[in-house]
Amino acid sequence: MIAFRSILFNTAFYANLILRMIVLSPIYFLLPRKRAYFIPKNWAKANHWLMKTIVGTTFTVEGLENIPKGGYILAPKHQSFWDTYALLPWLDDPVYILKRELTWIPIFGWYIAKQRMIPVNRGAKGKVMAQVIERTKMEMATGRQLIIYPEGTRRPPGAPPEYKYGIARLYRDLNVPVVPVAMHPGLFWPRRKFLRFPGHFTVRILPPIEPGMDPDAFHDKLMHDLEQASDELLVQTARDNPELPLPPTAIQRLKELGAARDV
């Protein structure tokens, strides 16, 4: 049944994406940029409905009161394709730093360009990174919210943290709050797998880290706060979803936390 529901959901998910891009493109590209954002945001809401209705996966968002007004950096854990779009309905005018290859995809890349997302060559450093920061400053100066994943790429739930230092540099140079977000969607929508699992999980938006800290101290605090919340949510999610199959990384981390499931 899980395999059948997964196939049905994946089919509906991509059909929803492709049909919306084709049918709504005239409206999207004619509207002013920020007003046009309602189309991606409604797409995200539709995906949440599909996940709930077809797979049986639901989630709760905690800590919305921690989201500041104006510009800030949102720093979520990154485990799944789910978390690339999931929070769009709660954000005013987000902007992503993303790999440039995404801009080469027909139609999808045009949608990205419309919202002035910031493409980057992951293999480039030095001068290119400085240009990315300058471009990011321009977007943030208009009050936008930057979404960046501190570990840079998707990591399996419970895996040892691998935080990149780039977010500390952005924190220093942009001089805005950083809002950490802990969650475990990778338990229900695993990376590089087609299966989708039913259950319930929590998205926890933590209090913002205000600007002005030493970058090294900020980096340590971000990792401490986010990993502590992630551990708490991993234990909670495993407890609340006893039938959910867990990846080896999550099983190992639960053992280290003294919260291993009974076999």
UniProtKB/TrEMBL annotation:
Where in the numbering of this chain does the Phospholipid/glycerol acyltransferase domain appear? 72-186
**In this record, what's one Pfam family?**
Acyltransferase
GO biological process per UniProt = phosphatidic acid biosynthetic process
Q: Which InterPro entries match?
A: Plipid/glycerol_acylTrfase
User: What are the record keywords, sorted?
Assistant: Acyltransferase, Membrane, Transferase, Transmembrane, Transmembrane helix
Transmembrane ranges, per UniProt, are 12-31
Q: Give GO terms: molecular function aspect only.
A: 1-acylglycerol-3-phosphate O-acyltransferase activity
What pathway does this protein act in? Lipid metabolism
Q: Which domain of life is it from?
A: Bacteria
Q: What is this protein called?
A: 1-acyl-sn-glycerol-3-phosphate acyltransferase
User: Which organism's genome codes for this protein?
Assistant: Rhizobium glycinendophyticum
Q: What is the lineage of its organism?
A: Bacteria, Pseudomonadati, Pseudomonadota, Alphaproteobacteria, Hyphomicrobiales
